[in-house]
Specification:
Number of strands: 5
Largest sheet: 3 strands, antiparallel
Helix content: 25-40%
Length: 67
């Protein structure tokens, strides 16, 4: 049950096949957020990370598909 709650609180983005998007530097924490196995997960309440990923051309939001 804890994993279902955790999954609901995360947004998942997938790197488009054939693209080389490895991650990005988070503006607030200054940590590099990396793609693991072509997927990036960020907390649903992290507006800055979601804005970066939404604007990126090499990733697509698959949160609804993964659920």
């Amino acid at each position: 049950m804890a994993t279902a709650k955790k999954a609901a609180e995360m947004r998942t983005y997938k790197v488009i096949e054939g693209r080389n998007f490895n991650g990005f530097m988070h503006p607030a924490t200054r940590k590099f957020v990396t793609a693991k196995d072509g997927m990036i997960q960020v907390p649903a309440d992290d507006a800055k990370a979601i804005a970066i990923l939404t604007a990126a051309a090499d990733v697509t939001d698959v949160t609804d598909i993964v659920k």
